[in-house]
Structures are given as C-alpha cells and as structure tokens.
UniProtKB/TrEMBL annotation:
Name this protein carries in UniProt: Unannotated protein
PROSITE patterns: ABC_TRANSPORTER_1, ABC_TRANSPORTER_2
SMART domains, alphabetized: AAA
PANTHER family reported in the protein's UniProt record: ABC TRANSPORTER I FAMILY MEMBER 6, CHLOROPLASTIC
Keyword tags: ATP-binding, Nucleotide-binding
Organism: freshwater metagenome
Gene Ontology MF: a single term: ATP binding
Record keyword Nucleotide-binding present: yes
Keyword Plastid: no
Family annotation (InterPro entries): AAA+_ATPase (IPR003593), ABC_transporter-like_ATP-bd (IPR003439), ABC_transporter-like_CS (IPR017871), FeS-cluster_ATPase_SufC (IPR010230), P-loop_NTPase (IPR027417)
Residue ranges occupied by any ABC transporter domain in the UniProt entry: 17-261
Residue ranges crossing the lipid bilayer per the database entry: none
Pfam families for the chain: ABC_tran
Length: 261
C-alpha cells in the first residue's frame, strides 16, 4: 500500500515589518546622507528597541518609516506585511496599520481628542462610529491608562503635560489598533513616575493586541527596564552596528557608545 504523501510545510508568514539596506538623505539642493544601510526585521508580537547617541539617525529613521517628505529614500526598501511601501504616502501607511508616537506631540487647537480619534478611526477602518460608541471605547481605555475622562473633550494636547501628551499617544495606539507601533523617544521629558505610567499603558495595549509589533526608539535604559524588549539594536552613524538581547542595553548603560564609535 502506497504511503500518503508528506504534506508540504505551511508557508512562513511575512514579518510585520522589514527594513532592507535602507539609505536615506535629506531633501534639497545639498542633500546629506543620514541613514547608510539600515536592516531590521520585526515579527508579530515582537518588541524591538533601537538605541543610539544624538545624531545617529534614530528620529530620521522613525520619520522615514512613516513617509516624511523631509527625507528621501535613495536605495533600499521598507516592507510592511510583505508589501513594499517605500513609495507609499504617510496617510496610506497609517490607514494600512502603521502608527508613530511622536517625540514631541503637536497641539491642535479646536479639535477635541474625541473628534480627532473619530476621524482617525474612520480613515483607518473605513467605518463611521457614533460618538457614543467611540466615547464608550475611549472611556474604557482612559481608565486602563489612568487618564482623566475629561481629556476626551479637551483640544488635542493643548495644555497637556509631557506625560499626558505621551499617554494620549498610547491612547491613540489602543483605539486605532495598528499592526506596528513606532515609539520615537516616548520617554523624552518624562520623570520616572510618568515613564512608568506610559510604559504600563504600552503593556495594556500589548495585552489587547498580542500580535502588535513595537519599535521603541530611546536613549535610555530606564524605558527598556519597563518595556522589556526581546531585541535591542545599536544605531551609530546611520547604521545598525550591533543587535542582541536585553543584555546589550545593559552593556550600553555601563559602557556607553564609545566601543562602537
């Protein structure tokens, strides 16, 4: 009797996010190359930390990943869920499920947090929620993020403290349900108590979205102590010069960046 054929192995799913040999320059008459061949892959549910000194290209990378017109990709490509998005506009990337938490969130006078999230949700999902449905969802998440419910009706980031602005970014991550969240120096300007609240918020989002990929960009070990990434990368002079596990961040904390410069 002939044996049954061995079933073919299931195809390996594409990573949530992949950066392949990315070279990036400023735009204008005298372009300056900032990123010089960055490679990075993020799988579903993985938390990656990117560390580096000032001027290494961290924020340039974050802005480029979201399609900022201030920078030009001169070679390499960016893949999101297997699709080449290198030429996609910022709004298309956001609708597809990419989210950037800004280092310095902007104030938007005249637009409440609730209205902003309603418009962003409609653009992201293609569904119009009633104000009541959205308010109920926001109130639930504000409780989980230790936010005052009155913030839903305040103008976006207007009069917010640094910690409140960063928690509002995490609230947006929770409501918009992206596939990849890029946290650009979320710890910037926060004291340790505010940092812990923000990190707790990120963990709350992870509990609800276990497949969420996270790229946390930071200078400091203290954020990583709270987020506990599985992968740490060192960016120096526009290149990732070393990758490893959490132990790499402790080496950086103890020795600084001199070993790679």
């Amino acid at each position: 009797m002939a044996s049954s054929p061995t079933p073919a192995p299931a195809p390996t799913p594409a990573p949530v996010f992949a950066i392949e040999d990315l070279h990036v320059s400023t735009v204008g008459d005298n372009p300056v190359e900032i990123l010089r061949g960055v490679n990075l892959t993020i799988g579903a549910g993985e938390v990656h930390a990117l560390m580096g000194p000032n001027g290494s290209g961290k924020s340039t990378l974050a802005s480029t990943l979201m399609g900022s017109p201030e920078y030009a990709v001169t070679s390499g490509r960016i893949l999101f869920q297997g699709d080449d998005i290198t030429d996609w506009s910022t709004d298309v990337r956001a609708k597809a499920g990419m989210f950037l938490a800004f280092q310095y969130p902007q104030e938007i006078a005249g637009v409440s947090v609730l209205n902003f999230l309603r418009q962003a949700w409609s653009a992201r999902k293609g569904i119009d929620l009633s104000m009541l449905e959205l308010r109920l969802s926001i109130m639930e998440w504000m409780t989980r993020l230790d936010m005052d419910p009155s913030f839903a009706d305040r103008y976006l980031n207007e009069g917010f403290s640094g910690g409140e602005k960063k928690r509002n970014e995490i609230l947006q991550t929770a409501i918009l349900e992206p596939e990849i969240a890029i946290l650009d120096e979320t710890d910037s300007g926060l004291d340790i108590d505010a940092l812990r609240v923000v990190a707790k918020g990120v963990r709350e989002v992870q509990l609800s979205r276990p497949d969420l990929g996270i790229l946390a960009i930071t200078h400091y070990q203290r954020l990583l102590d709270e987020l506990k990434p599985e992968f740490v990368h060192v960016l120096i002079d526009g290149r990732i010069v070393e990758s490893g596990g959490p132990e790499l961040s402790h080496k950086l904390e103890a020795e600084g960046y001199d070993a790679w410069q």
